[in-house]
Design brief:
alpha/beta, eight-stranded mixed sheet, binds guanosine-5'-diphosphate, cytoplasm, 11 helices
């Protein structure tokens, strides 16, 4: 990763060799390359601007180290700033409460919400040794509840029995009661998606959140949708108290720039990335890895 951007920056800095410090005009010229790299990786324009400004301030006047070229040095500064902006450390779920801990999943239809619900449930039950139950509150999409039940069987995770005709808030109440009575550690609520953000969806989410009082509200977004994903995240974060984001389809050719914008727009950590269709295709979000991907 250090090669490609530092190659691009190499020419800018060649004449700087042997000088003492990174000067402002060279740094600004280098930042034009950084700006292009970030835009190509799908980082939102306002985020790019803010980022470039911050890094320029940091870099100007820094002593040129003997061990690396000035280009490499700037790439390192850019890389470190990216990692910091992405949240520095991986951030896991916060389920340290009297059970059952409630995890509510929200997002648009097709974002990978139901699959991600099952992936996290499987991970919690296998790695975290938690007793997990999942419940689908999606009464909009035909067969959504059945889909979660099938995934539950595949993942060896319990699902709330389906009662036809019940509405989301009532399903949430029933799920809570069942999870308490049956001694589950974690209850995962898979809410309905829509094709676009609309008010009915937001009202439904708020009503469910009011009843369930979740410890975690995770927004699932498709990394391949780039800038759209950022707009979706903005709308959701304005309406519900998100605690984190899951970026799906990071196994595809998304450059990862959406991750940076997401964090800047929602102010919430990205907790997981989806890395495939299979139920094991999920990882804790690693800021350093994604920073590398953004720099290409
Ligand atoms: P929902 O409508 O948001 O609940 O979306 P689904 O969970 O039904 O997922 C839609 C499609 O995306 C399915 O075919 C999933 O297998 C696929 N999918 C979900 N997450 C990922 C991921 O991280 N990588 C890939 N390649 N496919 C995914």
């Amino acid at each position: 990763m250090f090669e490609s951007l530092s190659e691009r920056l190499g020419g800018v800095f060649d004449r700087l060799r042997g000088r003492g410090a990174l000067n402002e005009s060279d740094v600004r010229e280098a930042m034009r390359e950084v700006r292009v790299a970030l835009l190509e990786a799908d980082v939102a324009l306002p985020v790019v601007r803010q980022f470039v400004e911050k890094v320029t301030e940091q870099a100007v006047g820094q002593q040129v180290l003997r061990s690396v070229t000035p280009g490499q040095q700037v790439v390192k500064i850019v890389n470190d700033a990216l990692v910091e902006m992405l949240g520095s450390e991986a951030s896991d779920l916060n389920l340290d409460v009297t059970p059952p801990a409630i995890v509510m999943m929200v997002g648009l239809q097709g974002s990978g919400k139901t699959t991600t619900t099952a992936k996290i449930a499987k991970r919690l039950s296998e790695k975290g040794r938690k007793k997990v139950m999942m419940a689908s509150l999606d009464v909009n999409r035909p067969a959504a509840q059945e889909q979660l039940a099938v995934l539950g069987t595949q993942a060896s995770v319990a699902t709330l029995p389906i009662v036809t005709g019940q509405q989301p808030v009532d399903i949430a109440r029933r799920a809570l009661q069942a999870a308490k009575l049956q001694g589950f550690d974690v209850l995962m609520l898979d809410t309905a998606g829509r094709l676009h953000v609309d008010q009915a969806l937001m009202e439904e989410m708020k009503a469910v959140a009011a009843v369930a009082e979740p410890e975690e509200i995770l927004l699932v977004v498709d990394a391949l949708t780039g800038q759209d994903a950022v707009n979706v995240a903005k709308s959701f974060s304005e309406q519900v108290a998100l605690t984190g984001v899951v970026l799906t389809r990071m196994d595809g050719d998304a450059r990862g720039g959406a991750a940076l914008s997401m964090r800047a727009v929602t102010g919430k950590p990205i907790k997981f990335v989806g890395t495939g269709e299979k139920l094991d295709g999920i990882e804790l979000f690693q800021p350093a890895r994604v920073a590398g991907r953004i720099l290409g």
